[in-house]
Amino acid sequence: MLFGIEWDTSSNWAFAWSILPILVRGLWVTLQAAAVGFLLAALLGLILAAMKGARLRLIRWPAKLISEFLRDTPLLAQLFFLYYVLPDYGIVLHAFMTGALALGLQYSAYMSEVYRAGIEAVPRGQGDAARALDLTPARTFIDVVIPQAVPRIIPALGNYLVSITKDVPILSVVSILDMLGVAKIIGDRSFNYLVPLTLVGVLYLLLTLVSAALIRMLDRRLPKQGVPLR
Amino acid sequence: MHWIDYLPPLLQGARITIELTIYSTLLGALAAFTFGLGRGADCVPLRWISVAFIEVFRGTSLLVQLFWLYFALPVLGQWVGLDLRLPPMVAGVLALGLNIGAYGAEVVRGAVAAVPRSQHEAALALDFTPRQTLWRITLPQAIPEMMPSFGNLAVQNLKDTALVSLISLGDLAFRAEQIRNFTQDSTTVYTLLLLMYFGMALVLTALMRLLERLVGRWRGANAPQGG
User: Fold this and answer.
1) Which CATH number does the domain housing residue B8 bear?
2) Is residue B227 part of a domain?
3) Between A and B, how many CB-CB pairs are < 8 A?
4) Coil vs helix vs strand at A175
5) Nearest alpha carbon to residue B10 among B173, B142, B158, B132
6) What is the distance, to the nearest Å, from the Cα of residue B216 to the centroid of all Cα atoms in its chain?
7) CB B18 within 8 A of CB B196
């Protein structure tokens, strides 16, 4: 029994059917963790990208080092660091927030590259034309560069959202009851790991296939000439 | 305990991490070429198997795959009367290698598709067998294109090995957790852990760059001599 839901072990199909509502509860936690982690990564990535594009070396180099470090160390090690070290310095976060923060940090490094690549892909001539039209640098960035970078950035961010969702099971080690976390508990208690773990795999496969189709659709729908901000 | 005393057990763990990385990267490369080329093959069943392999291993989470191989497979074995209990090392190498191999297969497919059609037509005109075309025309041009992505995947694979600590294999992450449980000195242990992974990733990146340069010569060496 988990979350007050009993399971039926009379047959494998009955077992699968009876634990499905429990796994869906876990799936909901998975999606929440992925969403919060994604928002943190998108925001931190933007800050890192801005720092990496700075003219001052004193800002640019630390940003590059931090980004390289975040990208080259395992999520699990970062998670342990946040979970065990932060409380020693008086920063006590809920396990869920710690997990989301670890996801956000790890993926901020990847996302900063997405922003940078999206902005760099805007043709140089666009900036020259804006200067010829006497637009201020701020207006050029907001009204010319960003609208054209957005259609390139959005699908890439979507792919990272899917990657983040696939990394959420790692958070189960700090007692977050995501889909894999609940499947493991069901397995521990029923001695039948096969049914819950296979179901988790099938649910993940459905989730990623649907997301991939959505991202492809989004990619087709986004106007390549740019999305006006206002 | 001084931080120096943490190093011997951590290095012991690092050895397991390095072994796992090497074995699973090799298995991954094998899977990448098999299924990446299989996806573009003329034989329909081979193509379907390749697509299914790539979708399953890219579409589900690595930790789910690892747990499935380690916890669920023995249950399946019991039903059919086979002993499918895998040692943690084997389960780890299989899960890591097949997972990274599925990502690699997409890289292989992309690089092979990027070889100009005219190259195949020229090979056909020169009466090359399909096998000769693959080995002498397609792969020497496609492999250098794959190398930068393979470098990223190798580092990804190194990072992913940390997950095997969750099936009680004594790798670097596992040793760090043991030391922390014993000493409660979280800051030192986990800082060392992160730095060691960072160092290994930098070395691996340098090695992959070297390999990239080495393979990059193929294109030149295979170009027609004297025009």
Assistant:
1) 1.10.3720.10
2) no
3) 115
4) coil
5) B173
6) 20
7) no
Residues A153 and A115: beta-carbon distance below 8 Å: yes
Residues facing A5 on adjacent strands: A2
Q: B196 lies in a domain? A: yes
Ordered domains of chain A (ranges, CATH): 29-177 (1.10.3720.10)
Number of domains in chain B: 1
Backbone angles phi, psi at A99, to 5 degrees: -60, -45
Which residue do the tokens 């976060």 mark?
Answer: A93
Q: Is B185 on the interface with A (CB under 8 A)?
A: no
Residues of A in contact with B65 (CB under 8 A): 201
- For A193, the token pair is 């790991």
Give pTM, 2 decimals. Answer: 0.89
A107-122 burial code (b ≥16 CB/10 A, e <16) = bbbbbbbbbbebbeeb
Q: Do B61 and A169 touch (CB under 8 A)?
A: yes
Interchain CB distance below 8 Å, B194 and A173: no
Residue A124 is encoded by which pair of tokens?
A: 């140089």
Interface predicted TM-score (ipTM) of this complex, two decimals: 0.88
Contact list in B for residue A184 (CB cut-off 8 A) is 67, 71
A162, B32, B37, B163 from B109: Cα distances, Å: 21, 9, 6, 28
Q: Could you give the 3-state DSSP secondary structure of residue B39? A: coil
Smallest CA–CA distance from B193 into chain A, residue: A77
Which of A167, A170, A193 shows the shortest C-beta gap to B72? A193
Q: Rounded to a whole number, what is the distance in Å from the CA of A125 to chain B's nearest CA? A: 28
Q: At what angle do helices B172-183 and B186-222 cross, to 10 degrees?
A: 170
Please tell me which of the candidates A71, A77, A169 has its beta carbon nearest to residue B64. A169
What's the token pair of residue A49?
């990208």
Asked if the structure places residue B116 within a domain, the reply is yes
Span between the terminal Cα atoms of chain A, in Å: 53
Give the three-state DSSP class for A230: coil
Q: Output the tens digit of pLDDT for each of chain B's 227 residues.
A: 688 888 888 999 999 999 999 999 999 999 999 999 999 888 899 999 999 999 999 999 999 999 999 999 998 988 888 888 899 999 999 999 999 999 999 999 999 999 988 988 899 899 998 888 888 888 888 999 999 999 999 999 999 999 999 998 989 999 999 898 888 888 999 999 999 999 999 999 999 999 999 988 776 555 554 43
Cβ–Cβ under 8 Å, residues B212 and B147: yes
Asked whether residue B178 is assigned to any structural domain, the reply reads yes
**Polymer length of chain B:** 227
Domain span including residue B144 = 3-222
- Beta-carbon neighbour count of residue A126 at 10 Å? 14
Mutate to test the interface with A, among B55, B63, B66, B68 (most CBs of A within 10 A): B63
